[in-house]
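SEQUENCE-TO-STRUCTURE ENTRY
===========================
Question of interest: how does this chain fold, as expressed in backbone structure tokens?
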Amino acid sequence: RLLLGIRPTTPSPPLAVSLWCCRRLVRPESIDVEAEGMAVAVLICAREKGLTLGPIVTAYERYAPSLPADHPVPELLRERFEEVAVDAEEEIMASAQGAELPSQARALIAEARQYWGAPDRPPGGGEELFPRLQGAMEALMRRTEEMLTGKLPLCRTKSGLQAMQEAVDLEFVGWPTKLKGRVRAARVAYKEYLEMTAHTAFGWPPTGNLAPLCSSGRWFAAELGEDNPVVEDFVAAVKRLRGRKEQVALEELAPHFEALSKIRAKLYTDPPPPRLLLEGYTEEHEAKLEEALVALERVREEIGTESPEVLQVARGIMQPEGFAGKMAEECEEAASILRRPLPPAIPGLRTEEGEERLAAAVRLYQLLAQLKVDDPSRAASYQTEFQSVLGTVRPSVTLLCPAADAEDEEGWHKPPGFDTVERPLGQPTPPPTPPRLPTPPRPETPEPEPDVKVKMRLHGVTMQEAQHNSEIVLLEKLALIVAKECGVPRGWITHISLAPPKSKEELEAEEEEAALQRAMEAQEADDVATLRSGAAGA
């Protein structure tokens, strides 16, 4: 540079550009918009490769408002935009060809439009850009609507219908479809079907084996919600039935457990009994155990795994090793159901499959609470494999029966990592100050007896109907009718109850007793009158 006489550029190019931009901002009237716009348009339109719609749109929006309507710069930019838009539409159409759903196509189109910098409408206004693309999207939506309409009747669970609803909301954004109304109608019909099934499948109130009743109750609660009135009535009835059946089962198994405990106390002594006595005790134990296993099998068929107390008695009857083997076998049966591959979200599981899967998850949860006592390693392997399922099924377990792992021996819940620490002995704690005796409560004033008592017979209503329906509602209606007919306030009508009508024999017996009572009272009156007349004569 020194030999050639080339001097450094003053100012430097970056500084020169900065100064030019500053002058342009400070004195906008000094800008030659036509010359600058023509230069920019020539640079953009002359590019053959790698040109997208973004620079053309930016240049048009920058210079078109400042130039006359017939100026060649906007026209040149519009023509070049139309040429590039054809290539952009071809590439966007090709990228959307592999989409099977409108949501996938929209995502691919949005990505391609962002790459090309494509606006919604061409520069200067006009119809929407890429008309062929709009036609392809409408055709894809029609195909998707036909596909989802065919799958709608197969959605027979709450999760399947919810997935269908979400798919309709996702795929048909801004596009009218009849599927929305059809999905709403299908959800209402499914709800009515479940409520009718709850009323009719097991009778009302529900009766039968406890295991299928609990399985159906949990399924109804999962599908309809625990706050559904039908589910609340069904669950309450099953709880009452469970309490009765559990008590009967424990009473049936108690004699077998006691007999086995006595014979085992003789059999497993230290030192062992003599050989002849040992053989006799062994034969007796086998006979008692066979009888107990028959009774236990009958009880388990009736109750299943719904009673931790019954399972504890079963452990005592079968002894820990045999009981652990039985629990492991049943755990594997439940796990085999949970290992089945799930179908697609739409249509999802069938009603029977969903109930079976929920029942298997609940059963596995209940069995693992027993298995971890005698075989913790196997129980831990199942818990690790089905961690996601077991973590969500606990509310269904406790809906109808208490969980076996809810509390320890002292009634307190053990959090994870809990350990018992022995506290070192220190100074004896002084005896606490005896608490102050509370003031005894005042005796409650007994409610006065009503002035008027009435018995009436209701025609057209049986005791069975009153018991199968809400007795409280029936009594309230009766009280309102009596108050209205007698012209008194509703609060005056109290102590209402229902009872079956007495038979003809009972009525005749009451009439005979009343007649006898009247005769005795008349006889006593005659005797009093005779005594008085005798005293007056004396």
About this structure: Confidence is low (pLDDT under 50) at residues 407-411, 534-538.
